[in-house]
Amino acid sequence: MTSPDAPDPSLVLWFRQDVRRAVRAAWLRAFVFVFLAMAFLTAPLSAWESPTALQVVGWIFGGACLVTGPIYLMVRLQRILAPDIYLAVHRGGVSWHDEADNRFVAWDQIREVRAREGSAGIVLELDGQEDLVVAEAFVDVTSAELAELLTELLQKALLGLPVRPRSWPR
Fold first, then answer.
1. Exposed / middle / buried, residue 94 (Cβ in 10 Å: 0-12, 13-18, 19+)
2. Given this model, what pLDDT does residue 23 score?
3. I need a surface site. Which of 26, 40, 43, 160 has the fewest CB within 10 A?
């Protein structure tokens, strides 16, 4: 048996969280670890003829960096990509899912959709309920574009027209 608040299963649009900046930062840090490993593993070879204590320390530090870089990258990417955060637009309304909240809002409960002032995300002003604040940036769409698109779909839904975007995807 389904709940009367369950979203209409017909998905119109789906937006996922933008994690590109965090992924690039993780790759950069891993690259720095591997670069340090190369520097510490090869520098002592050209500097001295026989192994000294400094060379051994350089090899140990270089080996540690060589192992740490890929392990750091895998752990960090798992943490970045693990959360299932998305905004889905259905024929019956909008559903928001993140680690702390899983909410469906029907079109007739939404009063207005606007972009958040000064930061990424949108605000869905609701009738008789607490506003739904989505404080995430989404892939390939700005907050203003998303608010404009959701406003267009809201107007269509309230007029009884098919909930399909006129100009999406770009």
1. buried
2. 95
3. 160
Give the residue among 22, 1, 15 at the shortest CA–CA distance from 147. Answer: 15
| pLDDT (0 to 100) of residue 50 | 61
- Say how many C-beta atoms besides its own lie within 10 A of residue 96's C-beta: 19
pLDDT at res. 41: 83
| Whole-angstrom distance, CA of residue 71 vs CA of residue 83 | 20
List of the chain residues with pLDDT < 70: 1-9, 44-51, 167-170
pLDDT of residue 167: 65
Candidate CATH numbers 2.30.29, 2.60.120, 2.40.50, 1.10.10; the one for domain 84-158: 2.30.29
What does the pLDDT read at residue 44? Answer: 65
**How many other CB atoms are there within 10 angstroms of residue 40's CB atom?**
20
